[in-house]
Amino acid sequence: MRSINKVMLAGRLVSDPETRPFDSGRNLCSFCIALNRTWKDSEGNAKEESTFVEVKYWSKHALETAKSVRKGSNVFVEGRLLQERWKTKDTQENRTRLVVEADEITYLDPKTTGEERIS
Fold first, then answer.
1. Residue 38 near residue 58 (C-beta atoms within 8 A)
2. What is the pLDDT of residues 91-119, one digit of tens each?
3. Residue 13 and residue 69 in contact, taking contact as beta carbons nearer than 8 Å
4. 109 exposed, middle or buried (CB, 10 Å; 0-12, 13-18, 19+)?
5. What is the rounded distance in angstroms from the CA atom of residue 61 to the CA atom of residue 75?
6. What 3-state class would DSSP assign to 91?
7. Dist CA 101 CA 56 (whole Å)
8. Bridge partners, 54 (sequence order)
9. pLDDT for 42-98, tens place per residue?
10. Fewest CB atoms within 10 Å of the CB: 8, 20, 90, 97?
11. What share of the chain is helix, strand, coil (3-state, %, to 5)?
């Protein structure tokens, strides 16, 4: 059986994006988005929860994306899950986390140049 690793998320940036240049000439744009869900419980009370997802965008458009979105911007992200692994500096303990590595980002706010897909 072939594995499928495809993620599609629409959310709001919780902080301004950060960029990081690399010696290879590539740039990384990273940001966190909030995914909000609302529902009513069995008694009819409104409930809400937020999930926060880290997004990494390696692209020739990374710098453009960082200039086009800010905290509060709505984006649609298409990409894949990536498990990052590292050891802590002090105790050398293994750590992991899941992030989304974006292939395409669509700006959803009208204050940008309309709905604009960047890949």
1. no
2. 889 999 999 999 999 999 886 444 555 55
3. yes
4. middle
5. 15
6. coil
7. 5
8. 32
9. 999 999 999 999 999 998 889 999 999 999 999 999 999 999 999 988 888 999 999
10. 90
11. 5, 60, 35
